[in-house]
Amino acid sequence: MPKLKILSGGEVVKIFLQFGFNMASQRGSHIKLRRVMPDGTKQTLTIPNHAEIDRGTLRAICRQVSRYISETEWHAHFYTENQAKSSIVPSMELFVKKKDKEIRLI
After folding, report:
1. Regarding the domain delimited by 9-82, which CATH topology (the fold level of the hierarchy) does it fall under?
2. Structure-derived torsion over alpha carbons of residues 84, 59, 76, 79, reported in degrees to the nearest 10
3. What is the pLDDT along the chain (106 residues), one digit of tens a residue?
4. Model pTM score
């Protein structure tokens, strides 16, 4: 199952700008994005402008945006590809030296 990516508020805003949303306002660390449809309907999203958005908050943003945009359009921006565990790069292993012994952390 694909996992949510770790995204910043700025990255999320850039994604929604691609879908026709514009920055309407900002109050504190929250950015309000708005898109006006041809029939005059206003669609509004509120995005926290944090360095890293919590996964639960990001999930709530996905639920909120699914009212306006089909999931097939935004899914790739928010979720990672489903990768097998064999794709782990061996160079990413972490070693810790403890009393002259190397301990590998997986």
Report:
1. Metal Transport, Frataxin; Chain A (3.30.920)
2. -20
3. 789 999 999 999 999 999 999 999 999 999 999 999 999 999 999 999 999 999 999 999 999 999 999 999 999 999 987 654 444 444 445 555 555 655 555 4
4. 0.73
